[in-house]
Amino acid sequence: MANYLIVGGAGFIGVNAAKHYAESGHAVTILDNLSRQGTSDNLKWILTEHPDIRFVRAEIRSDQAVLETEAARCDVLLHLAAQVAVTASVADPRTDFAINALGTLNVLEAVRRASRPPILLFASTNKVYGAMEEVPVIRDGDRYRYQNLPSGVSEEHSLDFHSPYGCSKGAADQYVRDYARIYGLRTVVFRQSCIYGPHQFGNEDQGWIAWFMRRALLGKRVTIYGDGKQVRDVLDVADLIAAYVAAVERIERSSGRVYNVGGGPANTLSLLETVKLLEQVNHTKLDSSFGDWRPGDQRIFVSDVGRAWRELGWSPRVSPQEGIARMRAWMAANLENVVQASHV
Fold this sequence. Notes:
By secondary structure, the protein is an alpha/beta fold. It has a single domain (3-340), classed as Rossmann fold. It is 43% helix and 19% strand. It has a seven-stranded parallel sheet, sandwiched between helices. A three-stranded mixed sheet has the order 14-11-16. It has a two-stranded antiparallel ribbon with strand order 6-7. Strand 1 (3-7), helix 1 and strand 2 form a beta-alpha-beta unit. The protein is globular.
């Protein structure tokens, strides 16, 4: 049995990870400031399901002593705490920086100061690759595709931080990587793409599949920005957690490494295809309209997940059809909480 500390553990990914670790027989502590919508409900649920999970309310921007105490107690620290919306970062870049960049540095320092530093897993983002305007993209029927990247974007692709969010997460990404090189910490960076699943509420700026599903269940209109042919690789949260598990199991290989973890070429959806899929699982027509392209919106992003397969033995297993149907079942069963998530 190992001791797991999940920083930002009351979020969507965090409670799913906590559930998995607890059911695997590990001791779990969740550290969160409960500032994001839905986190209080998520925490209540996970503590009801697993009363042995500890909860520590703390702020990664300022509660350094708490971070150091908790980091010293754990074997694995999963760092998920973040400001996650590009639009929020543009409106308030200082707060975005304080949470994503400074907060991550605080976590790293807590790990470094531990007498027996834990393994650190960090949730980064594919936004570190930027707009990728130099990569040729062509239209292929009702979707876009890369002209010369059949396997998607690899970890070797040049970094190009766009937006305050991209800068803050990119800085954190590189700090986590460098602390393995400079201080010998066992850190692993996951550049995540379009994660979805139960306990996600979503909004127009983050968690777009959950946002579409929420609007569909409530009979509300969805705005499709651009022509709807934009493509993303999507990943069920259970597959993401499997990647975390694989990295810990193979830490001698994964330490200091960066991995793209998305659905890869086999699990891509365009916005138009997503609408059709939601209509199938909901058995109803989705009210949708089109809006102007949003600045910086990529025509396509698909992760090359080959490194994770070669080094971790990991690849996505849950199809979008299966995963989205499972997310829909959770949302339908928790519709009251979904409505209370506001912005509907």
